[in-house]
Amino acid sequence: DQQVKQNSPSLSVQEGRISILNCDYTNSMFDYFLWYKKYPAEGPTFLISISSIKDKNEDGRFTVFLNKSAKHLSLHIVPSQPGDSAVYFCAVNTGNQFYFGTGTSLTVIP
Amino acid sequence: GAVVSQHPSWVICKSGTSVKIECRSLDFQATTMFWYRQFPKQSLMLMATSNEGSKATYEQGVEKDKFLINHASLTLSTLTVTSAHPEDSSFYICSASPGGPGNTIYFGEGSWLTVV
């Protein structure tokens, strides 16, 4: 069973608008959540994270929201820029275990 | 969907011994695989990029003689931790990409190494 799901494989957004990437997880015991960004031919790079004691974490244009009751995580990018075009992965962590989503490919249209 | 499998999921070894972790792409051919190291509550650290049929490209600070990577076929890459020490205990993750449009990357389940 997939512990982490990213149901949208792709997303296109106009430059300057908001990009919202979503992630659902199954286990309420997960206590740390991360987003990674990946450009073609490169490994993923860490973007932003949030612990289960918070419901929001903001870093510049990137904000991660956590809805524990819905077991839902989202990443907001505003304003979106063409350089944000990449594949975004969510990941969850509890103890020594990590689970990753399959990624959402974001295209920001100039 | 595409699946990347790692084996073993958990391994305990004694200090000074070597341990091998396998990463397999089960339903696609992967010309490129990546190896990462993850500590709890920290970001994923890329260790090396493994290219089929050629030498791996290691990130700065990663000891290539300690972390041997072999990408012998289009579906298998191995990471061997040589002369393991307790500080090598970590969660190791691989990922693989079939290439082509979109260049989606698929992650393995990870392998937890404990060196005692």
- Radius of gyration of chain A over all CA atoms, rounded: 13 Å
Major sheet size, sense and barrel closure of chain A: 6 strands, mixed
Structural class of chain A: mainly beta
User: What assembly state would you assign to the polypeptide chains in this entry?
Assistant: heterodimer
Mean pLDDT rating of chain A: 89
Shape of chain B: globular
Helical percentage of chain A: under 10%
Shape of chain A: globular
Tell how many strands the DSSP assignment of chain A holds: 11
Number of separate helices of chain A: 0
Structural class of chain B comes to mainly beta
How far apart the termini of chain A lie comes to 38 Å
H/I helix tally of chain B: 0
| Overall pLDDT of chain B | 86
Descriptive report:
Chain A is mostly beta strands and 110 residues long. Chain A has no helices and 11 strands. Chain A has strands spanning 4-5, 10-14, 19-25, 32-38, 45-51, 56-59, 62-67, 72-77, 86-94, 97-100, 104-109. In chain A, strands 2, 4, 5, 9, 10 and 11 form a 6-stranded mixed sheet that branches. A 5-stranded antiparallel sheet of chain A has the order 1-3-8-7-6, with no helix packed on it. The termini of chain A are far apart. Chain B is an all-beta fold. Chain B has no helices and 11 strands. The radius of gyration of chain B is 13 Å and the shape is globular. The termini of chain B are far apart. The model of chain B has no long low-confidence stretch (mean pLDDT 86). Classes of the chains: A mainly beta (110), B mainly beta (116). At the A-B interface, β4, β5, β9 and β10 of A face β4, β9 and β10 of B.
